[in-house]
C-alpha cells in the first residue's frame, strides 16, 4: 500500500492515471485499510481507491487508539480536503459507516460535500445496536468476533494475538456504541445507499430505512445474502452494485 508523506490516515490501494471518481473505504471495528485491498482488482482504471487506517491499527499500531467517531472522521476529512477535488464516494462498513457519515457532514460543512455515502452493516446514526458487544468479557468478545467471521478461524486459539487485538476491538466498539449524532444535524444532499446482510445478527434490517433521514438526496437499500461481514464475501457482486451507484445520473449530477 502506498502512503503519502503528508497523509497519516489514507492509504492508496489503487492509483488511477486520470481518475474520474474517488472511492474512500472505512474499516469496521478492529479492521485495517488492508481489508479493502482485494477490491482494487475489481475496479476500473478511472476509479481511485483509498482506505483509511485508524490510529493504533495496522501500520499505525503503537499509536494511541481513539474511541471517538468524530476524532476518526476529523482526521480523515482533514486529509481528504488536502487532496485534489474529485467526485468522492465514502463506503463504510459497520463502525466505518458512522465514520463515513461524520466525514460526509464535515466535508459538506466545509464546501466539499461527497458525491455519495454507502453504509454497510450499520444501524442508522443514533440507533442502539442489537448486541452491545462492549459489555462482553474478553473471552466472549473474542468468540463473537470469530463467530461473525471477523477474524481468521485459525487464529481463534491464539492467546497472544487476542491480547494484542482486544484493546483495539474495544476502542472501536466503544466508539461505535457510544456515538450519538449532533442534534439537529444538517442533512446531507448526496445519495445514500445501505447494504444489509440478511443473516446479520447485529443489525435489524427493519431499522435501516432510518438512514433515509440523513439526506435530502435519494436513498436506497440492498439486502444481500450473508452475515455481518457480507462485503468480504461475494465481493464481485457488491462491487458491481457500487460501480452502478458511481455511474448513476444522481451521482453524476451531484
Describe this structure in words.
With 254 residues, the chain is of the alpha/beta class. It has one domain (10-253): 3-Layer(aba) Sandwich (Rossmann fold). The protein is 30% helix and 16% strand. The protein is built from six helices and seven strands. Strands 1-3-2-4-5-6-7 form a seven-stranded mixed β-sheet, sandwiched between helices. β4, α2 and β5 (116-120) form a beta-alpha-beta unit. The longest helix has 20 residues, at 159-178. It starts with 9 loop residues before the first strand and ends with a helix.
Structure keywords:
7 strands; 7-stranded mixed β-sheet; Rossmann fold; 16% strand; alpha/beta; globular; 254 residues
Which fold name corresponds to the CATH topology?
Answer: Rossmann fold
Helix content class = 25-40%
Radius of gyration: 17 Å
**SS content category:** alpha/beta
Record the strand order, biggest sheet. Answer: 1-3-2-4-5-6-7
Low-confidence stretches: none
Strand content: 15-25%
Order of secondary-structure elements: EEEHEHEHHEEHH
| Shape descriptor | globular
Tell me the distance between the termini: 30 Å
**Major sheet size, sense and barrel closure:** 7 strands, mixed
Mean pLDDT: 89
CATH superfamily: Alpha/Beta hydrolase fold, catalytic domain
Proper CATH architecture: 3-Layer(aba) Sandwich
Number of strands: 7
Tally of discrete structural domains:
1
